[in-house]
Design a protein that fits this description.
0% strand, PBS_lyase_HEAT, ARM-type_fold, mainly alpha, single chain
């Protein structure tokens, strides 16, 4: 008990050194450690000293708290040293070079570090924590690859409010530097939610090198661990996962593990795997959903033939259920059973329609089109319409359009993606109609237009390539290039700046497009009254990619709608990157006037002071040529 408490206290001290003494002295973990260690002080004098120092920190105020925190950190270092044992290698060997990895250092400025640490440690003034972590992790300059963040990542994985965004964005940004710390805290047999996140994070970073760990997790882990392990193994190495997933999918006692195993069979090439997936498709709703995803991605040579064969004549002719008159209990039970069986058939057929469409074959699409036009059951016709919309099916364009606005959000997103994937060069011709006044006036017209702008903007985002060589934005290289070459998308973004409901989406597109033709329109927006902080920041970023003397005055105008250290920090990052010495006196004058009207807090003023120090630095004159 005491040893575990000391280990946790040691980790907490590392965290508090970043978060600050005032947070440390009121942290509930500190009080819990004191309550656990105090009864043991009589038997272990060292624990008495630790307890005494904890109380000093809790009672300290002002600057004294910082001194007491440093004293506690020093004491914990002594305790850690006393418990340490040398870890010698098992055998001598030749030196080998380390695996090449991406550069990691300390790229965060003090203000950025304070903001990100506050988000990770849930500091009292932290706001929009998930957004801050995601923005820094996705920064083009690799800001989140900072060594000082490593001690904070594992505690953040225990924080349910930000755990998923840390796993999805921050951990991959840190790369292999964080793996030893993740492995240190991983306990496969306990199977806590934290352990599941740690296992997923390690697998995302190490890829094929994590295969042995994932096999061990399948053997030793609780259901949640086994499910995560087989899912990651299927993603990393489908061939290695296949024999394990075949057993788990039909024999494991946990439904979640069976579902994860069915997902893992998506890349399995054997006939046995295809049989298992087809049986799962005819099973419970959860298994069918997983099997549908795996069958849609299956590369088995007979997959299309076997899936199309499921669309039997009986299912094509399936009609509405006719309620039978029943008087006795036996007749009522039989009627209820028949009705449930009919409902199951309809649900099966709806999922089959989705699967046929996802396979992307002409024969499958024509079967779905037939169901859309001729099937007797409305639920099936509606499902066929949604399925055809998702792939942007051109064979029944005008027939499908009335169904689009009332379709689910995922269908709308898939529809936009399907139109772009079908022919990126003609995507503007097909999607521009949704920005006409009559289309925008539809009940959900603005929502659809916003989704189109967001999807198009994604093609202009430059992210690192994935393991398979595809762009990091998830779009194909061909589609990305064709969208970027079509200047009509930039013109559409400019045209939508006048629509306040679409302005943020339009600005996001223009920021990533970086087109010089947008300068005048961005300057016009900067002069408008009543801009939101998000709009102002997007205009900031848009102008920051251009060069024009009018931009400096626009920067100062755009500072007015901003509020808080995070907004000011983003704006100052743009001005720092712009790096125009003429901006320094203008910004200094604006800041002085702002301070006279309303005194900025230390967190709000820090980004400006940091930016001004950079802009006002001594600049070396360029050498002249005689």
């Amino acid at each position: 008990m005491a040893k575990d408490t000391l280990k946790q206290l040691d980790r907490d001290v590392d965290r508090w050194l970043f978060a600050g003494a005032q947070i440390a002295r009121t942290d509930p973990n500190l009080a819990a450690a004191r309550d656990t260690l105090a009864p043991l002080a009589a038997r272990a004098p060292a624990l008495g000293k630790v307890t005494e120092q904890i109380e000093k920190l809790q009672n300290a105020t002002g600057k004294a708290a910082a001194s007491e925190l440093l004293a506690l950190a020093s004491l914990m270092a002594q305790v850690r040293g006393a418990q340490a044992t040398p870890a010698l290698p098992e055998a001598n060997g030749d030196l080998t070079p380390l695996t090449p990895t991406r550069k990691i250092g300390t790229p965060l400025t003090p203000t950025e570090l304070n903001t990100l640490v506050g988000a990770l440690t849930n500091a009292p003034d932290a706001r929009q924590r998930s957004r801050i972590i995601r923005d820094y992790a996705m920064s083009d300059r690799g800001a989140a690859r900072d060594l000082r963040l490593l001690p904070l990542v594992v505690p953040a994985l225990s924080d349910g409010a930000i755990a998923e965004v840390v796993v999805q964005y921050l951990v991959p940004a840190l790369g292999e530097a964080i793996v030893p710390s993740l492995q240190k805290h991983l306990d496969l047999e306990k199977g806590r939610a934290l352990d599941v996140r740690l296992l997923r994070a390690i697998a995302r970073i190490e890829g094929a090198k994590a295969t042995d760990l994932l096999r061990e997790a399948v053997e030793k882990g609780v259901p949640d661990i086994r499910a995560a392990a087989i899912a990651e193994l299927g993603r990393i190495d489908p061939l290695a996962a296949e024999p394990i997933a075949l057993v788990l999918s039909e024999k494991d006692r946990s439904k979640d593990v069976r579902v994860a195993a069915v997902h893992a069979l998506a890349g399995a090439p054997s006939d046995e795997a295809l049989d298992v997936l087809l049986r799962a498709f005819g099973g419970t709703a959860e298994l069918r959903s997983a099997a549908e995803i795996s069958l849609a991605a299956s590369k088995h040579p007979r997959a299309n033939e076997r899936i199309i064969a499921l669309f039997s004549p009986e299912l094509r002719e399936l009609g509405h259920y006719r309620i039978k008159k029943a008087t006795t209990k036996e007749e009522k039970d039989a009627a209820a059973k028949e009705q449930k069986a009919h409902t199951n058939q309809v649900e099966y057929l709806v999922d089959l329609v989705d699967l046929l469409t996802a396979r992307g074959t002409d024969e499958g699409a024509n079967l779905v089109l037939e169901a859309f036009r001729q099937h007797k059951v409305k639920e099936v016709r509606d499902a066929a319409a949604r399925a055809l919309l998702r792939i942007g099916f051109p064979g029944a364009w005008e027939e499908l359009m009335p169904s689009l606005y009332d379709a689910p959000d995922t269908t709308k997103d898939d529809f936009v993606g399907g139109v772009i994937a079908l022919d990126p060069a003609k995507a503007h011709d097909r999607l521009a109609r949704f920005f006409e006044p009559l289309a925008l006036a539809q009940k959900k017209g603005l929502d659809l237009a916003e989704r189109i702008l967001a999807r198009v903007a994604n093609h202009f985002v430059d992210l690192e390539e994935g393991d398979d060589g595809t762009p990091g934005n998830g779009e194909s290289a061909e589609a990305t290039q064709k969208i970027r070459n079509d200047e009509r998308w930039v013109d559409l973004g400019v045209a939508m700046l006048g629509n306040k409901s679409l302005r943020i989406s339009a600005l996001t597109l223009l920021v990533h497009a970086r087109s010089p033709k947008t300068l005048g329109d961005a300057l016009s927006v900067s002069r408008e009254e009543g801009l939101s902080s998000e709009e102002a920041l997007l205009v900031f970023e848009c102008l920051g990619k251009q060069r024009d003397p009018r931009i400096l005055h626009a920067f100062l105008r755009l500072l007015e709608p901003l509020r808080g250290g995070y907004d000011y920090g983003r704006a100052c990052n743009v001005m720092t990157a712009y790096d125009d010495p003429a901006l320094a006196p203008m910004l200094r004058s604006w800041l002085d006037a702002k301070q006279k009207r309303k005194r900025l807090s230390r967190a709000e003023a820090a980004p400006f002071e940091e930016c001004l120090r950079f802009l006002e630095r001594a600049r070396t004159a360029a050498p002249t040529v005689d």
